[in-house]
C-alpha cells in the first residue's frame, strides 16, 4: 500500500495438504509392495511367466502414472481477484482488448450460435472504445458473414440493454432461456422480439443455403465472394463491420460501439492452412493493424461469455504491479451449459478443472486450453521472457487512426494471405505453433518453457460456457484428437520430458506428462481389461489368494485410490452416478481414443499418415438430444472404436458367465473360485457392471441410438473367438 501499490490479486494455499501427502505416501508404499509381489512370485513356466510379466509391466505403468498425477495434488492453490482495486488504480489506463472468436463450419457451428457468442463478448463491462471483436471464419461462409451483419445491427439495442439492466449472461439466447417469459418487462419483451426476428432471418437463410438477394445487392461487403470457389479456395474476405473510430458508430443510446471485424483468411489448395492455429495467427496480424489491443482473448465460437466481468478478472493478474509482469496468460476453465446432472460423457472434466489445474497453478501455471484464455499480445507473438520486462500500459496506444476504413481493410487483407507466412517465424517462434492437433497446449508450453508463468482463474460464476459433445462417438473422436496432439508434444522439440528443464518446475513437467501420456495409457488398460478376465475363465489365478497377506496391498491401493477419486469428484461438485459414468468414459477413451491416437502417432512418425482436426458438432438432431437429456448413451454409428469397446465388454461378460458355469459344475463351487481368484472375479465383475449401458445398446435397445446390429454380431464373434482361443489354445 505504501508506495501506492494496490494488490490486485491474492493467492491462497489449499487446506489439508499435509493429510493428503501422508495418505498419498501410504498408497505409494502399497504400490511398491504390489511390485515386489510380482517380482517375488514370478512363475517358473514359460507361458505363465509372460502373462505375469505383462501384468507387472501394466502395474509398473499404472504406478508410474499415478505418481505423475500426484504432482498437481501436492501443492494446489486458489486465486482471488480484487477488481475494485483495478478500477481504483488503473481505470484510466486500461489496455485495449482484442477478442478472437473462431468458427470453421456453418453446418456444425450454426451462425446463430456463433453470433450469440460474438454478442456476448461485445457486451463486456469494459470501455467499448478499447474493445474489438474479430470473427475468424475458416469456412468463408456468406451465411456467417450475413449473420454477423445482422448481429451488428442488433448489438445497437442489445449492448445498452445489457448495461442498463446489468443482466447476466450476455448471450441473448442464454439470457432469454434463463428468464421465465411471464416476468419479462416491457423493454425485455421488445428486445426479445428483435432477437427472435433476427434469429429467424438467420436460420431461414441457413436453411435456404443463401443470403436474401436484396441484402446481397445492397451491401457491398458481399461482392468479395465473387472469388469464392470453395471453402478451400478463395481470396481473403475482410470487412470492418463496425469501425470503433467512427463517431457515428453508436448504439441507440448514443454510446460508442466496440469494433467488429469479419475475417476469412485466404485459402488455396496448395497451401496447408494449419487449422485453428493458422486462423489465430492471421487474426493476430490483422488485428495488429486495426486495433492492436495489448491483451488478446481467445474463445471458441460456442463459448459465450457468461460473466461480463471476466476481462477485469484477467487484468487483475496481468496488471498487478508486483507479480503481473511475469504472467503471460490467464486461463479460465472450460465449462458447458448443456451438461446433464450425471454427465454421461464426463464432458465437464471436473477433476481436471477443479483439482488438477489449481494444482498446476501452484507449480508455474496451467496449460493453455484454446478457449477462455487471455494472452499478452507481445508474448503470443514471440516476445522472449526477461526478468526486467515491464509493460507500460499507459504509453501504448498504437491504434491505427491514420487510414480510412477502406485503406485499413486493404492493408489488413494482405496480412491474411496464404503466402504471407512463407519464410517467416509464424507458427514456429511467433504466434500459435503449427503441426500439432492441440495447437493450444503446445503453444502454452512453448511460452512457459521460456520462463513465463500463467495463472488459472476459476471464479464462482463461470466466465465462459460452451457446448459439450452429446454423443459417445463425438466424445471419443474429440479425445482422440486431444490425446494424439498431447502425445505428439512429448515427441516434439518442446517435450516436457527432455526439454524445458530449468525453465519449468518438475511439478509442472510432470503435470504436462499426465496429459501427454494419455495415449500410452491405452496399452496397460487394454491388457488389464482383457487378460485377467480370460485367465479367470481358464481358472488361472494371477493375483494373491484370499488367505495370502499379499492381498492387503492390492486391496488397499485399489480401495484407497478409488475412494480418493470419488471424494475428489464429489468435492468438485459431482454426483456419485456422475463419478461412475466418468469411470466408464475413462475406460472407453483409454481403450479406443487413446489406442487410435497412439497408432496414428506412430504412423505419423513413420510418415504414413497426417493428423487432422475433426471439428466437434455443436448441434444435434432432436431425437439424439432427447436421449441425451434422458442420459441414455448414444451409439448409433459404426466405428472401429465401438467395435473395440463392444468386444472388450463382451469378452468380460463371456468370461464372467463361463467362470460361473464352471464353478457351479465342478464340485468345489463358487467359494473355491472366490478364494483363489477374488480380485479377478471382482475386476471382471466390475467391468461387466460398468459396461451395462453398452450391453443394452448392443442387444436390448430398439431406438436409433443403439449399436448397429452388424457391429453387435461382429464384436460378439470377435469376443467369442478371443475367449475360445484363450481357453483352449493358449
Ligand atoms: O480449421 C479449423 C478447425 C477448428 N477451428 C475452430 O476451433 C475451435 C475448436 O474446435 P472444436 O471442434 O470445438 O474442438 P474442441 O475439441 O471442442 O476444442 C478444444 O480443443 C482444440 C484443440 O484440439 C482447441 O483449439 C479448442 O480451443 C479447444 O476448445 C472452434 O471454434 C472451431 O471453429 C478453426 O477455426 N479452424
Ligand atoms: Mn468445442
UniProtKB/TrEMBL annotation:
SUPFAM superfamilies: Nucleotide-diphospho-sugar transferases
Membrane topology category: Multi-pass membrane protein
Cellular compartment(s): Endomembrane system
Coiled-coil annotated spans: none
Main subcellular location of this protein, as a coarse class: membrane
Protein keywords: Cell wall biogenesis/degradation, Glycosyltransferase, Membrane, Transferase, Transmembrane, Transmembrane helix
Positions of transmembrane segments: 18-38, 50-68, 512-530, 550-580, 592-615, 635-657, 669-691, 711-729
Any Pfam family the entry gives: Cellulose_synt
PANTHER family, sorted: X-BOX TRANSCRIPTION FACTOR-RELATED (PTHR13301)
Protein name as catalogued: Cellulose synthase-like protein E1
Organism: Citrullus colocynthis
Lineage, broadest ranks: Eukaryota, Viridiplantae, Streptophyta, Embryophyta, Tracheophyta
Amino acid at each position: 500500500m505504501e508506495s501506492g501499490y494496490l494488490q490486485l490479486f491474492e493467492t491462497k494455499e489449499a487446506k489439508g495438504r499435509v493429510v493428503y501427502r501422508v495418505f498419498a505416501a501410504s498408497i505409494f508404499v502399497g504400490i511398491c509392495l504390489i511390485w515386489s509381489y510380482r517380482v517375488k512370485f514370478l512363475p517358473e513356466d514359460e507361458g505363465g511367466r509372460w502373462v505375469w510379466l505383462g501384468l507387472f509391466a501394466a502395474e509398473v505403468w499404472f504406478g508410474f502414472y499415478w505418481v505423475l498425477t500426484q504432482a498437481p495434488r501436492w501443492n494446489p492453490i486458489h486465486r482471488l481477484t480484487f477488481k475494485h482495486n483495478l478500477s481504483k488504480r488503473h481505470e484510466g489506463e486500461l489496455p485495449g482488448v482484442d477478442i478472437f472468436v473462431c468458427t470453421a463450419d456453418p453446418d456444425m457451428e450454426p451462425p446463430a450460435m456463433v453470433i450469440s457468442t460474438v454478442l456476448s463478448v461485445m457486451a463486456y463491462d469494459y470501455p467499448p472504445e478499447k474493445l474489438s471483436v474479430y470473427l475468424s471464419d475458416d469456412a468463408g461462409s456468406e451465411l456467417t458473414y450475413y449473420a454477423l451483419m445482422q448481429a451488428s445491427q442488433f448489438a445497437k439495442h442489445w449492448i445498452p440493454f445489457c448495461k442498463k439492466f446489468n443482466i447476466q449472461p450476455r448471450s441473448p439466447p442464454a439470457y432469454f432461456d434463463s428468464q421465465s417469459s411471464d416476468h419479462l418487462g416491457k423493454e425485455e419483451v421488445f428486445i426479445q422480439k428483435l432477437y427472435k426476428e433476427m434469429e429467424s432471418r438467420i436460420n431461414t437463410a441457413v436453411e435456404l443455403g443463401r443470403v436474401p438477394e436484396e441484402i446481397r445487392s445492397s451491401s457491398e461487403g458481399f461482392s468479395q465472394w465473387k472469388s469464392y470457389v470453395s471453402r478451400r479456395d478463395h481470396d481473403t474476405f475482410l470487412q470492418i463491420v463496425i469501425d470503433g473510430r467512427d463517431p457515428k458508430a453508436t448504439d441507440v443510446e448514443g454510446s460508442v460501439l466496440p469494433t467488429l471485424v469479419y475475417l476469412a483468411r485466404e485459402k488455396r489448395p496448395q497451401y496447408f492452412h494449419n487449422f485453428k492455429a493458422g486462423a489465430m495467427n492471421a487474426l493476430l496480424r490483422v488485428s495488429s493493424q486495426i486495433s492492436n489491443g495489448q491483451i488478446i482473448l481467445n474463445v471458441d465460437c460456442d463459448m459465450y461469455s457468461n460473466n461480463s466481468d471476466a476481462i477485469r478478472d484477467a487484468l487483475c493478474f496481468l496488471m498487478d504491479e508486483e507479480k503481473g509482469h511475469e504472467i503471460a496468460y490467464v486461463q479460465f476453465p472450460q465449462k458447458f451449459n448443456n451438461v446433464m446432472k450425471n454427465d454421461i460423457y464426463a464432458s465437464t472434466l471436473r477433476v481436471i478443472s477443479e483439482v488438477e489445474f489449481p494444482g498446476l497453478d501452484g507449480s508455474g501455471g496451467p496449460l493453455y486450453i484454446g478457449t477462455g484464455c487471455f494472452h499478452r499480445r507481445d508474448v503470443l507473438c514471440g516476445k522472449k521472457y526477461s526478468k526486467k520486462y515491464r509493460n507500460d500500459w499507459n504509453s501504448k496506444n498504437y491504434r491505427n487512426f491514420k487510414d480510412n476504413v477502406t485503406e485499413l481493410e486493404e492493408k489488413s487483407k494482405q496480412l491474411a494471405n496464404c503466402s504471407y507466412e512463407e519464410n517467416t517465424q509464424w507458427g514456429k517462434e511467433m504466434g500459435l505453433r503449427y503441426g500439432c492437433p492441440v495447437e493450444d497446449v503446445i503453444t502454452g508450453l512453448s511460452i512457459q518453457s521460456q520462463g513465463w508463468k500463467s495463472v488459472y482463474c476459476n471464479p464462482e460464476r463461470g466466465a465462459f460456457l460452451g457446448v459439450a459433445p452429446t454423443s459417445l462417438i463425438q466424445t471419443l473422436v474429440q479425445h482422440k484428437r486431444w490425446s494424439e496432439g498431447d502425445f505428439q508434444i512429448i515427441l516434439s522439440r518442446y517435450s516436457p520430458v527432455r526439454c524445458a528443464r530449468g525453465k519449468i518446475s518438475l511439478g509442472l513437467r510432470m503435470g504436462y506428462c499426465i496429459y501427454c501420456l494419455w495415449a500410452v495409457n491405452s496399452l496397460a488398460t487394454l491388457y488389464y481389461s482383457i487378460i485377467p478376465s480370460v485367465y479367470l475363465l481358464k481358472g488361472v489365478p494371477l493375483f494373491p489368494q484370499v488367505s495370502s497377506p499379499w492381498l492387503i496391498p492390492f486391496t488397499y491401493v485399489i480401495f484407497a485410490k478409488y475412494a480418493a477419486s470419488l471424494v475428489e469428484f464429489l468435492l468438485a461438485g459431482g454426483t456419485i452416478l456422475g463419478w461412475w459414468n466418468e469411470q466408464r468414459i475413462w475406460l472407453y477413451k483409454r481403450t479406443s481414443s487413446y489406442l487410435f491416437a497412439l497408432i496414428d502417432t506412430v504412423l505419423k512418425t513413420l510418415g504414413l499418415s497426417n493428423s487432422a482436426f475433426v471439428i466437434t458438432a455443436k448441434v444435434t438432431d432432436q431425437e439424439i438430444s432427447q436421449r441425451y437429456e434422458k442420459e441414455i448413451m448414444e451409439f448409433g454409428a459404426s466405428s472401429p472404436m465401438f467395435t473395440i469397446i463392444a468386444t472388450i465388454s463382451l469378452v468380460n461378460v463371456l468370461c464372467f458367465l463361463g467362470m460361473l458355469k464352471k464353478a457351479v459344475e465342478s464340485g468345489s463351487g463358487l467359494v473355491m473360485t472366490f478364494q483363489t481368484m477374488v480380485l479377478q472375479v471382482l475386476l471382471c465383475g466390475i467391468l461387466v457392471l460398468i459396461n451395462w449401458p453398452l450391453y443394452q445398446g448392443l442387444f436390448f435397445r430398439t431406438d436409433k441410438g443403439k449399436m448397429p446390429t452388424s457391429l453387435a454380431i461382429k464384436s460378439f464373434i470377435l469376443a467369442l473367438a478371443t475367449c475360445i482361443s484363450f481357453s483352449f489354445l493358449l
